[in-house]
Amino acid sequence: MDKVTNVFISGVGGQGILLASEVLSEVALARGLDVKKSEVHGMAQRGGSVVSHVRFGEKVYSPVIAEREADLLVSFEKMEGLRWIHFLAPGGTVIVNSQEIVPSGMEAYPDGMDEGIRERQPDALLLDALGLAREAGNARSVNVVMLGAFSNYLEFSEDEWTKAIEARVPPKTIDVNLKAFRLGREAGRR
User: What CATH number does residue 61 fall under?
Assistant: First the structure.
């Protein structure tokens, strides 16, 4: 991994974006890579936008991903995926949870999110991470489902991911989170 890999994670406050970026960072650190991470919380406590930039490689100088430089854009919510898609590098990968969270102050979810994402990235993967989290046994494990989905696009083994998840989630939730990870990993394979 001589090249710096850029992973841009977005979503809405309370979806576990920060935990997902911590797990990804831990996996890269355990591999001996230089890791830089930056987060923007905004109005996270009120369901606002949350983004995390994670960069890793042999040597990383800045924690911030510039526009059009994300190798992987992962969004835990559709509107947030469309909002941040301009960070995707040409040839990059987009994975979006199909969940729709109506923003504060709006009465209904806007139409056209799927089309907007596909217009900008025709091969974007939209998956029902909330449904898979429920299947795993806990709707709050959407973030770990998404980790599983995007783990397919990074050069880390399933064992490396498993160790990082076990180290970061509360002990009583390890089993459900590992199941969520496996379901997401399966769904993320094309």
Answer: 3.40.920.10
